[in-house]
Amino acid sequence: MADTTLETPAVTQHPRRIRWETIGDHVVLILGSLLMMMPPLLALTTASHDAVTIHREGLQLALGDDLGKNFHAAMFEKGGFTQTVDGTLMLMNSFILGIGFAVGKIIISMMAAYAIVYFRLRFATLAFWVIFTTLLLPLEVRILPSYEAIQKLGLTNTYTGLIVPLIASATGTFFFRQFFMSVPEELAEAARIDGAGPWKFFVDILVPLSRTMIAAIFIIMFVFGWNQYLWPTLITTDESFFTLVRGIKQIVLSYTDSQIPEHGQALALAIVAMIPPVVIVVFFQNWFVKGLTESDK
Amino acid sequence: MAQVNLEGIIKVYPNGHQAVETTNFNIQDGEFVVLVGPSGCGKSTLLRMIAGLEDITEGTLKIGNRVVNDVDPADRDIAMVFQNYALYPHMTVRKNIGYGLKNRGMPAAEIDAKVQDAAKMLNLTEYLDRKPAQLSGGQRQRVAMGRAVVRDPALFLFDEPLSNLDAKLRNQMRIEIKALQRRLGTTAVYVTHDQVEAMTMADRIIVLSEGRIEQIGTPSEIYHNPASIFVASFMGAPPMNLIEAQADQGQVRINGYDGLMPAPKSVIGPVTLGIRPEDIELDSRGSVPFRVDILEELGAHRLLHGAVGGQPFTVMVGKDHSARIGETHITLKPDALRLFDVETGKVL
Amino acid sequence: MKRAGFDNIWLPVALLLPQLMIIAIFFYWPAAWALQSSFFLQDPFGFGSTFVGADNYTSLLGNNQYKRIAWFTIVFSVLVTFFSLAIALLLAVKADKVIRGAKTYRTLLMWVYAIAPPVAGFLGILFFDQSTGPMTKFFQSFGWDFKLGVDYNATATAMVIAAVWKQIPVNFIFFLSGLQSIPRSVREAAMIDNRSATGRFWQVTFPLLAPTAFFLLIINITYALFDTFGIIDALMKGEPGNNPMTLVYKVYLDGFRGNDLGGSSAQSVVLMVLVLVLTVFQFRLVERRIHYT
């Protein structure tokens, strides 16, 4: 046919055009990755310099000599920006908040979701709405009254006051409800015929079945708890309850001081505050992504 | 082993939907009964009421002479096989099969022995330590069977257990389930929408439509003597031909033709005439003209699709028959003619 | 609810009790209290309060500073939502397309999700530092005397950039998973029907992503309104002064720094109403979403 001669150059051109397009894609992705990577990376390299250099020259691209020193000071020296706590204690508090929040939230919301989904309750719909209304109002909106409530209960500067009010939102219950709804009905029916009561079904079947979901929600909640800022800022005035993220405020304030502050140390602490949630998200990203995208649907 | 009695069973859902109208039937000890009907006919609801997964609105349900209306599913001495198998995905085959026994507090050694027996019976022995996700569809189906068999129940309940399998496996499992039930002699209630399954497996078939029983009978009775137009068109593939006709005292005339045929009953007025495709002969001297539009080759026989008096009509002929597309004539076997009331759809 | 639920009564009540108690104490009680105190004028020393009716609300709506903050909040939310969605969509489309290194790119582009907003704000301080910040120098090269914390627009720009940067990963994750859930057969059908890749994107891919985008729109507005608190607080270095701020920051400022309990409560209530409107809007979208998928 007449067309064949015309088509030939198109065929030879084809792979080349695709390759250029692919290179373009990679360029965009590399630029994007750099955009996301650079700020924390620069923070890391800068943290390896002494305070005077940082103060005078700002961010540093190259690695300096003081990385170990700055991290050591940030983690173990009392003083620096606060006089009574060191980084290790803040790190511990961050873990208590992150893990305590995640575990508490998972247990409480799993139980509630189980009750809502699997029981014939007359007030199930009511309970559902009572719980899910909380999705509407994030803690930030009702921060002042929540603080007043904690104060009246005498829970300021306690781990309970730090953790429990954060649990008072239905996100976890909502996640688990969605997941339980997607579990085939027949499983519960088969279990009933197999003689498993509601508690046995929960422990023997539903909880093991939810393992991936639990892991995913744990990661999301741990990061959420670890990264809390406003609430810990209000609830903990006693420095021995400070978390790393809460401590950032102190770091920031140190920056406004007129004399040369311990920049390297501050940066080291900020990096320590990033590491645990970043490590968890990177290493368990499949679970994390699955939990995030599936449960929100 | 047990017989099952349903007396005046009614199911009305809280939203007012009546899924099952007053239903009575008895299932004999060791009998294999199939509930068949299109989706939404109430067959699954009936089965789930027998299982105890659904409350009974009204009526009495007896399993083995014991009224079980308010008995928990676990205490009804039943086992159920689900459409999607409902295997516990995190448990091995061994644990899946043994879970019901464990919940009954049976000693571990005894459970193990019983699980082994069931596995052997179903050719699952080498898969006992696998999880359901590592099994093929047919193997999962067997595990679901094993879970039922191991309990040695009085009654097996099957809820469309084969509909997730491909055609070949379905034919094979059909035979296996039937053989197993024969061997164990356990009463079985089997729900399906597939009339082939119903025909091949059942001792007795119960045809349901819109929450009502249309007919109860052996496969042969259901096939040859359908009680209604619904049964006639639902059971059998290809279904029974149903065309409009006029009956007049022992004779019947297909609309548009003068030829009279002897009618099985003395009825007068318009009727629906039913006849199975295999009860018709191509006959150039036949009384009814038939136009063949499409010829369907099925190997063992051929189907001729066309029209009689403008109404769709199918004839089955043997594989050696030299049928051709075009006009021909047919003869209907008189004793295979069935007449149905045009209004009620019931057989006359 | 499942069709064959358990009939037990006390077990579900026991299971629900912890959640309901926490919600009652830390949600309903505070919310009711906020509503109530928004109608009172609190004595600055905490000795009592007087009922003032809707005064807190009227003074709020007549307050020019509050109007200015509300306006900034709107502009801020729109900019943050638009840029973080647009950049994330571009990156997700590319990450979905490449074969080599797809997983590495995904990791590199999403890990910032784990960084706390105030830490992001702190990084912002370094980049926008008045004398040494690289971003400051960048803007100065255009002749803009960029001074973080001094110049209103400079601070606002820094806040938007930091907030966008922090939000890109979430949007990226959702867009990528949305793209990956588009059936292969649909893409192949589109390849046969349309030879232009751009045309395919806007006519086939983007409409299929619309449900994800709608959902993300709400998520991003919520983020811009509430979760940016840490970024804003860090970038103004604890000195509100003349700096731009969002409505949530103002609630915090009046309630905790200014001790204006009634005014802060009234602001909380206004925010609650705002969120409720957003949620109703979201539910309507979700309803429509069901028809899409």
TrEMBL record, chain A:
InterPro entries: MetI-like, MetI-like_sf
Subcellular location: Cell inner membrane; Cell membrane
Transmembrane segments: 23-42, 95-116, 123-139, 159-180, 201-224, 266-289
A Pfam family: BPD_transp_1
Residue stretches making up the ABC transmembrane type-1 domain: 91-284
Keyword annotations of the record: Cell inner membrane, Cell membrane, Membrane, Transmembrane, Transmembrane helix, Transport
Highest rank taxon of the organism: Bacteria
Membrane topology: Multi-pass membrane protein
Subunit (UniProt): The complex is composed of two ATP-binding proteins (UgpC), two transmembrane proteins (UgpA and UgpE) and a solute-binding protein (UgpB).
Function, in words: Part of the ABC transporter complex UgpBAEC involved in sn-glycerol-3-phosphate (G3P) import. Probably responsible for the translocation of the substrate across the membrane.
Stated family: Belongs to the binding-protein-dependent transport system permease family.
The protein, known as: sn-glycerol-3-phosphate transport system permease protein UgpE
Originating organism: Ruegeria haliotis
Origin organism lineage: Bacteria, Pseudomonadati, Pseudomonadota, Alphaproteobacteria, Rhodobacterales
Automatic annotation (TrEMBL), chain B:
Keywords: ATP-binding, Cell inner membrane, Cell membrane, Membrane, Nucleotide-binding, Sugar transport, Translocase, Transport
Pfam families given in the database record: ABC_tran, OB_MalK
Domain (ABC transporter): residue spans on this chain: 4-235
Entry keyword annotation includes Cell inner membrane: yes
Classification via InterPro entries: AAA+_ATPase, ABC_transporter-like_ATP-bd, ABC_transporter-like_CS, ABC_transpr_MalK-like, ABC_transpr_MalK/UgpC-like, Mo/tungstate-bd_C_term_dom, NA-bd_OB-fold, OB_MalK-like
The keyword Transport belongs to this UniProt entry's keyword annotation: yes
Single GO term (MF): ATP binding
Xref: PANTHER family: MALTODEXTRIN IMPORT ATP-BINDING PROTEIN MSMX, SN-GLYCEROL-3-PHOSPHATE IMPORT ATP-BINDING PROTEIN UGPC
Family indicated by similarity: Belongs to the ABC transporter superfamily.
Record protein name field: Sn-glycerol-3-phosphate ABC transporter ATP-binding protein UgpC
Organism for this UniProt entry: Ruegeria haliotis
Primary gene name: ugpC
Automatic annotation (TrEMBL), chain C:
Entry superkingdom: Bacteria
Domain ABC transmembrane type-1: 70-282
Subcellular location: Cell inner membrane; Cell membrane
Database matches in InterPro entries: MetI-like, MetI-like_sf, UgpAE/MalFG_permease
Annotated CDD domains: TM_PBP2 (cd06261)
UniProt keyword terms in alphabetical order: Cell inner membrane, Cell membrane, Membrane, Transmembrane, Transmembrane helix, Transport
Keyword Transmembrane: yes
TM region(s), chain numbering: 9-29, 69-93, 105-128, 156-179, 200-226, 266-286
Membrane topology: Multi-pass membrane protein
Record-stated family: Belongs to the binding-protein-dependent transport system permease family.
Function according to Swiss-Prot or TrEMBL: Part of the ABC transporter complex UgpBAEC involved in sn-glycerol-3-phosphate (G3P) import. Probably responsible for the translocation of the substrate across the membrane.
Known partners and oligomeric status: The complex is composed of two ATP-binding proteins (UgpC), two transmembrane proteins (UgpA and UgpE) and a solute-binding protein (UgpB).
Name used for this protein in its record: sn-glycerol-3-phosphate transport system permease protein UgpA
